[in-house]
Amino acid sequence: MDQKGEKFESVEDTGSPNVAPPTRGQRFKRHCGRRWWIYLIIFLILVLVGVIAIIFGIIPRIAQNSVSSSSLQVDGIAITSPSNSEFTLAMNSTVNSHAPVSASFSPQTFEMYLPPAEGKEPVPFINLSIGSLKVEDTFTINVTDAKTAIMNEDAYMDFSAQVLGREELELGVRSRPQINVGAIKFNVNYQKIVKLRGLNGLKGIKLYNATILDTPLPDGTNMITDGILPNPSSFTLQVGDLTVDMAFGTWELGWSVVKDLTLYPGDNAVKIYNHVKPEIIKNLLFVSSTTAPRTNITLTANSTVFNGQHINWLEKPLHDAPPVIAVLNP
Ligand SMILES: *[C@@H]1O[C@H](CO)[C@@H](O)[C@H](O)[C@H]1NC(C)=O
Ligand SMILES: *[C@@H]1O[C@H](CO)[C@@H](O)[C@H](O)[C@H]1NC(C)=O
Ligand SMILES: *[C@@H]1O[C@H](CO)[C@@H](O)[C@H](O)[C@H]1NC(C)=O
Ligand SMILES: *[C@@H]1O[C@H](CO)[C@@H](O)[C@H](O)[C@H]1NC(C)=O
Ligand SMILES: *[C@@H]1O[C@H](CO)[C@@H](O)[C@H](O)[C@H]1NC(C)=O
Ligand SMILES: *[C@@H]1O[C@H](CO)[C@@H](O)[C@H](O)[C@H]1NC(C)=O
Questions:
Q1: Which of 158, 266, 273, 296 is most buried when burial is the number of CB atoms within 10 A of its CB?
Q2: Pick from 202, 191, 145: nearest CA to 317
Q3: Residue whose CB lies within 8 A of the most ligand 5 atoms, among 200, 250, 296, 299, for a mutation test
Protein backbone atom coordinates (compact mmCIF):
# COMPACT_ATOMS: atom_id res chain seq x y z
CA MET A 1 0.00 0.00 0.00
CA ASP A 2 2.76 2.35 0.90
CA GLN A 3 4.42 1.99 -2.48
CA LYS A 4 1.18 2.62 -4.43
CA GLY A 5 0.61 5.84 -2.49
CA GLU A 6 4.00 7.14 -3.37
CA LYS A 7 3.49 6.44 -7.04
CA PHE A 8 0.17 8.21 -7.05
CA GLU A 9 1.68 11.26 -5.44
CA SER A 10 4.43 11.58 -8.00
CA VAL A 11 2.04 11.29 -10.94
CA GLU A 12 -0.14 14.00 -9.49
CA ASP A 13 2.90 16.23 -9.09
CA THR A 14 3.74 16.36 -12.80
CA GLY A 15 0.46 16.68 -14.58
CA SER A 16 -2.49 17.67 -12.30
CA PRO A 17 -4.83 20.33 -13.82
CA ASN A 18 -5.62 21.49 -10.29
CA VAL A 19 -2.20 23.15 -9.97
CA ALA A 20 -1.96 26.89 -10.74
CA PRO A 21 -1.06 27.73 -14.43
CA PRO A 22 2.75 27.59 -14.96
CA THR A 23 4.75 30.81 -15.30
CA ARG A 24 6.61 31.60 -18.53
CA GLY A 25 9.86 30.34 -16.99
CA GLN A 26 8.28 27.18 -15.84
CA ARG A 27 6.80 26.61 -19.31
CA PHE A 28 10.22 27.07 -20.87
CA LYS A 29 11.73 24.69 -18.35
CA ARG A 30 9.07 22.17 -19.06
CA HIS A 31 9.53 22.58 -22.80
CA CYS A 32 13.23 22.05 -22.33
CA GLY A 33 12.51 19.13 -20.09
CA ARG A 34 10.46 17.46 -22.77
CA ARG A 35 12.71 18.37 -25.71
CA TRP A 36 16.04 17.92 -23.93
CA TRP A 37 17.00 15.19 -26.37
CA ILE A 38 16.68 17.54 -29.36
CA TYR A 39 19.12 19.92 -27.76
CA LEU A 40 21.44 17.06 -26.91
CA ILE A 41 21.39 15.88 -30.52
CA ILE A 42 22.06 19.39 -31.81
CA PHE A 43 24.87 19.77 -29.32
CA LEU A 44 26.36 16.43 -30.30
CA ILE A 45 26.11 17.32 -33.99
CA LEU A 46 27.91 20.58 -33.34
CA VAL A 47 30.62 18.74 -31.41
CA LEU A 48 30.87 16.19 -34.20
CA VAL A 49 31.13 18.89 -36.87
CA GLY A 50 33.84 20.53 -34.82
CA VAL A 51 35.72 17.29 -34.39
CA ILE A 52 35.34 16.47 -38.08
CA ALA A 53 36.58 19.95 -39.00
CA ILE A 54 39.59 19.39 -36.77
CA ILE A 55 40.22 15.89 -38.07
CA PHE A 56 39.70 16.52 -41.74
CA GLY A 57 40.55 20.19 -42.01
CA ILE A 58 42.74 21.53 -39.30
CA ILE A 59 44.89 18.55 -38.32
CA PRO A 60 45.77 17.68 -41.93
CA ARG A 61 46.59 21.33 -42.62
CA ILE A 62 48.78 21.53 -39.53
CA ALA A 63 50.40 18.22 -40.46
CA GLN A 64 50.93 19.33 -44.07
CA ASN A 65 52.47 22.58 -42.85
CA SER A 66 54.83 20.87 -40.47
CA VAL A 67 55.77 18.31 -43.15
CA SER A 68 56.37 21.14 -45.62
CA SER A 69 58.47 23.15 -43.19
CA SER A 70 60.52 20.18 -42.01
CA SER A 71 64.07 19.89 -43.24
CA LEU A 72 65.81 16.86 -44.71
CA GLN A 73 69.55 16.48 -44.52
CA VAL A 74 71.27 13.58 -46.24
CA ASP A 75 74.26 12.53 -44.14
CA GLY A 76 75.51 9.74 -46.34
CA ILE A 77 74.60 7.78 -49.47
CA ALA A 78 76.28 4.54 -50.48
CA ILE A 79 75.85 3.21 -54.01
CA THR A 80 77.31 -0.28 -54.22
CA SER A 81 77.08 -3.45 -56.36
CA PRO A 82 76.55 -1.36 -59.50
CA SER A 83 75.04 -2.81 -62.65
CA ASN A 84 73.40 -1.15 -65.61
CA SER A 85 69.92 -1.90 -64.33
CA GLU A 86 70.22 -1.64 -60.57
CA PHE A 87 72.49 -1.12 -57.58
CA THR A 88 72.40 -1.38 -53.81
CA LEU A 89 71.59 1.78 -51.93
CA ALA A 90 72.16 2.80 -48.34
CA MET A 91 71.27 6.22 -47.03
CA ASN A 92 71.48 7.99 -43.68
CA SER A 93 69.45 11.12 -43.31
CA THR A 94 68.15 13.36 -40.59
CA VAL A 95 64.79 15.12 -40.48
CA ASN A 96 64.11 18.17 -38.34
CA SER A 97 60.45 18.98 -37.86
CA HIS A 98 58.18 20.70 -35.40
CA ALA A 99 55.46 18.13 -34.89
CA PRO A 100 52.71 19.70 -32.75
CA VAL A 101 51.20 16.28 -32.03
CA SER A 102 52.61 12.82 -31.80
CA ALA A 103 52.36 11.20 -35.22
CA SER A 104 53.83 8.52 -37.38
CA PHE A 105 54.26 7.80 -41.08
CA SER A 106 53.18 4.52 -42.62
CA PRO A 107 55.74 2.92 -44.95
CA GLN A 108 56.22 5.14 -48.00
CA THR A 109 58.16 5.39 -51.24
CA PHE A 110 60.66 8.19 -51.87
CA GLU A 111 60.94 9.04 -55.54
CA MET A 112 64.27 10.69 -56.36
CA TYR A 113 64.97 13.00 -59.27
CA LEU A 114 67.10 15.92 -60.36
CA PRO A 115 65.24 19.22 -59.98
CA PRO A 116 63.89 19.82 -63.48
CA ALA A 117 64.26 22.98 -65.54
CA GLU A 118 61.47 25.58 -65.26
CA GLY A 119 58.21 24.17 -66.58
CA LYS A 120 59.53 20.62 -66.97
CA GLU A 121 58.21 17.59 -65.13
CA PRO A 122 60.63 15.81 -62.79
CA VAL A 123 61.84 12.44 -64.07
CA PRO A 124 62.31 10.11 -61.07
CA PHE A 125 65.21 7.73 -61.58
CA ILE A 126 64.86 5.60 -58.46
CA ASN A 127 62.21 4.64 -55.92
CA LEU A 128 63.33 4.01 -52.39
CA SER A 129 61.08 2.20 -49.90
CA ILE A 130 61.08 3.73 -46.44
CA GLY A 131 59.71 1.85 -43.46
CA SER A 132 57.28 3.35 -40.96
CA LEU A 133 58.63 6.35 -39.08
CA LYS A 134 57.81 7.90 -35.74
CA VAL A 135 57.77 11.66 -36.07
CA GLU A 136 59.91 13.48 -33.55
CA ASP A 137 61.57 16.88 -33.53
CA THR A 138 64.67 15.20 -34.90
CA PHE A 139 64.62 11.71 -36.33
CA THR A 140 66.70 9.69 -38.74
CA ILE A 141 65.68 7.93 -41.91
CA ASN A 142 68.30 5.27 -42.47
CA VAL A 143 68.06 2.75 -45.25
CA THR A 144 70.49 -0.10 -45.74
CA ASP A 145 70.91 -2.69 -48.41
CA ALA A 146 68.08 -1.51 -50.64
CA LYS A 147 68.13 -3.24 -54.03
CA THR A 148 67.30 -0.31 -56.24
CA ALA A 149 66.21 -0.47 -59.86
CA ILE A 150 67.23 2.31 -62.23
CA MET A 151 63.87 3.50 -63.53
CA ASN A 152 65.21 5.93 -66.12
CA GLU A 153 68.72 5.44 -67.47
CA ASP A 154 69.21 8.91 -68.93
CA ALA A 155 68.03 10.65 -65.77
CA TYR A 156 70.19 8.42 -63.62
CA MET A 157 73.18 9.03 -65.92
CA ASP A 158 72.70 12.79 -65.41
CA PHE A 159 72.57 12.30 -61.68
CA SER A 160 75.68 10.12 -61.66
CA ALA A 161 77.54 12.67 -63.81
CA GLN A 162 76.67 15.39 -61.31
CA VAL A 163 77.71 13.23 -58.37
CA LEU A 164 81.08 12.49 -59.98
CA GLY A 165 81.79 15.84 -61.54
CA ARG A 166 80.22 18.54 -59.44
CA GLU A 167 81.24 20.20 -56.23
CA GLU A 168 77.59 20.53 -55.26
CA LEU A 169 74.33 19.19 -56.65
CA GLU A 170 70.66 19.09 -55.81
CA LEU A 171 68.53 15.99 -55.38
CA GLY A 172 64.75 16.07 -55.40
CA VAL A 173 62.86 13.73 -53.07
CA ARG A 174 59.09 13.37 -53.09
CA SER A 175 56.45 11.08 -51.70
CA ARG A 176 52.84 11.08 -50.61
CA PRO A 177 53.03 9.44 -47.23
CA GLN A 178 50.13 8.45 -45.01
CA ILE A 179 50.45 10.17 -41.67
CA ASN A 180 48.79 8.73 -38.60
CA VAL A 181 47.71 10.92 -35.72
CA GLY A 182 46.26 8.51 -33.20
CA ALA A 183 43.57 6.65 -35.13
CA ILE A 184 43.25 9.43 -37.70
CA LYS A 185 44.95 8.72 -41.01
CA PHE A 186 45.43 10.96 -44.03
CA ASN A 187 47.95 11.60 -46.78
CA VAL A 188 50.28 14.56 -47.08
CA ASN A 189 52.53 15.74 -49.89
CA TYR A 190 56.21 15.52 -49.18
CA GLN A 191 58.70 17.23 -51.48
CA LYS A 192 62.23 18.37 -50.70
CA ILE A 193 65.23 19.56 -52.64
CA VAL A 194 68.35 18.39 -50.85
CA LYS A 195 71.80 19.90 -51.40
CA LEU A 196 74.59 17.37 -51.68
CA ARG A 197 78.32 17.61 -52.15
CA GLY A 198 79.68 15.81 -55.19
CA LEU A 199 83.06 14.19 -55.83
CA ASN A 200 84.20 17.31 -57.71
CA GLY A 201 85.86 15.38 -60.54
CA LEU A 202 88.28 13.66 -58.12
CA LYS A 203 90.39 16.80 -58.23
CA GLY A 204 93.59 16.64 -56.20
CA ILE A 205 94.74 13.08 -56.85
CA LYS A 206 98.21 12.53 -55.43
CA LEU A 207 100.65 9.81 -56.45
CA TYR A 208 103.55 8.50 -54.42
CA ASN A 209 106.16 5.76 -54.35
CA ALA A 210 106.39 5.07 -58.09
CA THR A 211 108.18 1.72 -58.28
CA ILE A 212 109.34 0.40 -61.64
CA LEU A 213 109.27 -3.39 -61.68
CA ASP A 214 112.30 -5.07 -63.26
CA THR A 215 110.08 -8.05 -64.01
CA PRO A 216 106.53 -7.05 -64.98
CA LEU A 217 103.62 -8.86 -63.32
CA PRO A 218 101.83 -11.54 -65.37
CA ASP A 219 99.10 -9.02 -66.27
CA GLY A 220 101.72 -6.67 -67.75
CA THR A 221 101.95 -4.23 -64.83
CA ASN A 222 105.44 -2.71 -64.96
CA MET A 223 105.11 0.08 -62.40
CA ILE A 224 103.19 0.35 -59.14
CA THR A 225 102.27 3.63 -57.47
CA ASP A 226 100.42 4.54 -54.29
CA GLY A 227 97.58 6.95 -54.86
CA ILE A 228 95.42 9.16 -52.68
CA LEU A 229 92.01 9.82 -54.26
CA PRO A 230 90.12 12.55 -52.43
CA ASN A 231 86.35 12.27 -52.11
CA PRO A 232 84.97 15.49 -50.62
CA SER A 233 81.38 14.23 -50.76
CA SER A 234 79.35 12.05 -48.42
CA PHE A 235 78.86 9.49 -51.18
CA THR A 236 80.31 6.02 -51.02
CA LEU A 237 80.65 4.76 -54.59
CA GLN A 238 81.65 1.27 -55.59
CA VAL A 239 83.30 1.68 -58.97
CA GLY A 240 85.04 -1.66 -59.58
CA ASP A 241 88.13 -1.74 -61.80
CA LEU A 242 88.86 1.76 -62.99
CA THR A 243 91.13 2.08 -66.00
CA VAL A 244 92.66 5.43 -66.91
CA ASP A 245 94.99 6.59 -69.67
CA MET A 246 98.02 8.55 -68.48
CA ALA A 247 100.11 11.21 -70.13
CA PHE A 248 102.81 13.79 -69.37
CA GLY A 249 101.27 16.70 -71.20
CA THR A 250 100.79 15.28 -74.69
CA TRP A 251 103.21 12.43 -74.16
CA GLU A 252 101.06 9.29 -73.80
CA LEU A 253 102.60 7.01 -71.23
CA GLY A 254 100.20 4.07 -71.20
CA TRP A 255 97.38 3.14 -68.85
CA SER A 256 96.72 2.33 -65.21
CA VAL A 257 94.20 0.29 -63.26
CA VAL A 258 92.85 0.72 -59.78
CA LYS A 259 91.36 -2.66 -58.98
CA ASP A 260 88.13 -3.10 -57.11
CA LEU A 261 87.85 0.58 -56.27
CA THR A 262 85.32 1.83 -53.75
CA LEU A 263 85.45 5.55 -53.08
CA TYR A 264 84.61 6.37 -49.48
CA PRO A 265 84.11 9.88 -48.13
CA GLY A 266 87.50 11.40 -47.41
CA ASP A 267 90.92 10.38 -48.74
CA ASN A 268 91.14 6.95 -50.34
CA ALA A 269 94.52 5.23 -50.38
CA VAL A 270 94.83 2.89 -53.38
CA LYS A 271 97.42 0.82 -55.23
CA ILE A 272 97.74 1.75 -58.88
CA TYR A 273 98.90 -0.83 -61.39
CA ASN A 274 100.55 0.95 -64.31
CA HIS A 275 101.10 -0.40 -67.76
CA VAL A 276 103.71 1.98 -69.09
CA LYS A 277 104.60 1.61 -72.78
CA PRO A 278 107.75 -0.55 -73.09
CA GLU A 279 109.69 2.16 -74.96
CA ILE A 280 108.84 4.71 -72.26
CA ILE A 281 109.57 2.63 -69.16
CA LYS A 282 113.26 2.63 -70.21
CA ASN A 283 113.31 6.29 -71.17
CA LEU A 284 115.67 8.19 -68.85
CA LEU A 285 113.49 11.31 -68.80
CA PHE A 286 110.54 9.18 -67.67
CA VAL A 287 112.59 7.24 -65.12
CA SER A 288 113.96 10.42 -63.55
CA SER A 289 110.51 12.01 -63.43
CA THR A 290 109.21 9.15 -61.27
CA THR A 291 111.39 10.42 -58.44
CA ALA A 292 111.31 14.15 -59.30
CA PRO A 293 109.04 16.32 -57.14
CA ARG A 294 105.67 17.53 -58.36
CA THR A 295 105.29 16.01 -61.79
CA ASN A 296 101.86 16.55 -63.33
CA ILE A 297 100.30 13.46 -64.83
CA THR A 298 97.14 13.79 -66.89
CA LEU A 299 94.60 11.03 -66.23
CA THR A 300 91.69 10.32 -68.54
CA ALA A 301 89.23 7.69 -67.38
CA ASN A 302 88.74 5.00 -69.95
CA SER A 303 86.54 2.33 -68.41
CA THR A 304 84.93 1.01 -65.26
CA VAL A 305 84.17 -2.68 -64.93
CA PHE A 306 82.32 -4.28 -62.05
CA ASN A 307 81.51 -7.98 -62.07
CA GLY A 308 82.76 -8.24 -65.65
CA GLN A 309 80.29 -5.58 -66.80
CA HIS A 310 80.98 -2.05 -68.06
CA ILE A 311 78.87 0.23 -65.91
CA ASN A 312 77.66 2.89 -68.34
CA TRP A 313 76.49 5.39 -65.75
CA LEU A 314 79.95 5.41 -64.15
CA GLU A 315 82.07 4.89 -67.24
CA LYS A 316 80.51 7.47 -69.54
CA PRO A 317 80.53 10.44 -67.16
CA LEU A 318 84.06 9.63 -66.01
CA HIS A 319 85.23 9.23 -69.60
CA ASP A 320 83.50 12.42 -70.77
CA ALA A 321 84.79 14.50 -67.86
CA PRO A 322 87.80 16.77 -68.35
CA PRO A 323 91.11 14.97 -67.63
CA VAL A 324 92.26 14.99 -64.03
CA ILE A 325 95.71 16.35 -63.21
CA ALA A 326 97.38 14.07 -60.67
CA VAL A 327 100.57 15.21 -59.00
CA LEU A 328 103.35 12.66 -58.59
CA ASN A 329 105.50 13.21 -55.49
CA PRO A 330 103.61 16.31 -54.34
C1 LIG B 1 75.10 5.32 -41.69
O2 LIG B 1 75.47 5.43 -40.34
C3 LIG B 1 76.05 4.25 -39.82
C4 LIG B 1 76.27 4.47 -38.35
O5 LIG B 1 76.94 5.68 -38.12
C6 LIG B 1 77.34 3.97 -40.59
O7 LIG B 1 77.94 2.79 -40.12
C8 LIG B 1 77.04 3.82 -42.06
O9 LIG B 1 78.23 3.65 -42.81
C10 LIG B 1 76.30 5.04 -42.57
N11 LIG B 1 75.86 4.80 -43.93
C12 LIG B 1 76.04 5.68 -44.92
C13 LIG B 1 75.49 5.28 -46.23
O14 LIG B 1 76.58 6.77 -44.77
C1 LIG C 1 71.39 6.55 -38.77
O2 LIG C 1 72.23 7.50 -39.37
C3 LIG C 1 72.82 8.41 -38.48
C4 LIG C 1 73.61 9.38 -39.30
O5 LIG C 1 72.75 10.11 -40.09
C6 LIG C 1 73.69 7.67 -37.50
O7 LIG C 1 74.24 8.60 -36.58
C8 LIG C 1 72.88 6.65 -36.77
O9 LIG C 1 73.73 5.89 -35.97
C10 LIG C 1 72.20 5.74 -37.76
N11 LIG C 1 71.33 4.83 -37.05
C12 LIG C 1 71.35 3.53 -37.31
C13 LIG C 1 70.40 2.72 -36.51
O14 LIG C 1 72.09 3.02 -38.14
C1 LIG D 1 57.69 4.61 -57.88
O2 LIG D 1 56.91 5.08 -56.82
C3 LIG D 1 55.76 5.82 -57.22
C4 LIG D 1 55.10 6.38 -55.99
O5 LIG D 1 54.86 5.36 -55.06
C6 LIG D 1 54.83 4.92 -58.02
O7 LIG D 1 53.73 5.65 -58.47
C8 LIG D 1 55.60 4.34 -59.20
O9 LIG D 1 54.78 3.41 -59.88
C10 LIG D 1 56.87 3.66 -58.73
N11 LIG D 1 57.61 3.25 -59.91
C12 LIG D 1 58.15 2.05 -60.04
C13 LIG D 1 58.85 1.75 -61.33
O14 LIG D 1 58.07 1.21 -59.15
C1 LIG E 1 104.89 5.20 -49.62
O2 LIG E 1 105.70 4.14 -49.15
C3 LIG E 1 106.00 4.24 -47.77
C4 LIG E 1 107.01 3.14 -47.43
O5 LIG E 1 106.56 1.89 -47.89
C6 LIG E 1 104.74 4.12 -46.96
O7 LIG E 1 105.00 4.27 -45.58
C8 LIG E 1 103.78 5.22 -47.40
O9 LIG E 1 102.55 5.05 -46.74
C10 LIG E 1 103.57 5.16 -48.90
N11 LIG E 1 102.75 6.29 -49.30
C12 LIG E 1 101.46 6.16 -49.61
C13 LIG E 1 100.74 7.40 -49.97
O14 LIG E 1 100.89 5.09 -49.61
C1 LIG F 1 100.62 21.24 -62.71
O2 LIG F 1 99.21 21.50 -62.77
C3 LIG F 1 98.82 22.62 -62.01
C4 LIG F 1 97.34 22.74 -62.13
O5 LIG F 1 96.76 21.51 -61.91
C6 LIG F 1 99.49 23.86 -62.53
O7 LIG F 1 99.11 24.95 -61.69
C8 LIG F 1 100.97 23.67 -62.50
O9 LIG F 1 101.61 24.80 -63.10
C10 LIG F 1 101.34 22.44 -63.26
N11 LIG F 1 102.79 22.20 -63.16
C12 LIG F 1 103.55 21.98 -64.21
C13 LIG F 1 105.01 21.76 -63.92
O14 LIG F 1 103.10 21.97 -65.34
C1 LIG G 1 90.64 2.84 -73.83
O2 LIG G 1 89.50 2.99 -74.67
C3 LIG G 1 89.69 2.64 -76.00
C4 LIG G 1 88.40 2.87 -76.71
O5 LIG G 1 87.81 4.08 -76.33
C6 LIG G 1 90.13 1.22 -76.13
O7 LIG G 1 90.44 0.92 -77.46
C8 LIG G 1 91.37 0.99 -75.28
O9 LIG G 1 91.69 -0.37 -75.29
C10 LIG G 1 91.10 1.40 -73.86
N11 LIG G 1 92.28 1.23 -73.08
C12 LIG G 1 92.25 0.52 -72.00
C13 LIG G 1 93.55 0.43 -71.26
O14 LIG G 1 91.26 -0.02 -71.59
A1: 273
A2: 202
A3: 296
Q: Whose CA is nearest to atom 5 of ligand 1?
A: 92
161 close to 315: Cβ distance less than 8 angstroms:
no
Q: What is the rounded CA–CA span in Å between residue 202 and residue 120?
A: 31
Q: Whose CA is nearest to atom 1 of ligand 4?
A: 209
Ligand nearest the Cα of residue 73 is: 2
CA distance 221 to 130: 46
**Domains along the chain with CATH numbers:** 69-198 (2.60.40), 201-328 (2.60.40)
Query: What is the number of the ligand 1 atom nearest to the C-alpha of 76?
Result: 14
CA–CA gap between residue 228 and residue 210 (Å, rounded): 13
**Cα→Cα distances 198→164, 186, 244, 302, 311, Å:** 6, 36, 20, 20, 19
What are the Cα distances from residue 83, in Å, to 153, 240, 305? 11, 11, 9
- DSSP secondary structure, 111-149, as one string: EEEPPPPTTPPP---EEEEE--EEE-SEEEEEEEEEEEE
Closest Cα partner for 329 from 299, 302, 289? Answer: 289
Quote the ligand 4 centre to 276 CA distance (angstroms): 21
**Are 114 and 170 within 8 A, CB to CB?**
yes
pLDDT tens across 265-296, in order?
999 999 999 999 999 999 999 999 999 999 99
Nearest CA to ligand 4 atom 14: 226
3-state secondary structure of 81: coil
Closest ligand by atom to 144 CA: 1
Q: Whose CA is nearest to atom 12 of ligand 5?
A: 296
Query: How large is the angle between the packed helices 312-320 and 153-165, nearest 10 degrees?
Result: 50
Closest ligand, as measured to the CA of 139: 2
pLDDT, one tens digit per residue, over 42-72 is 999 999 988 887 777 788 888 888 889 999 9
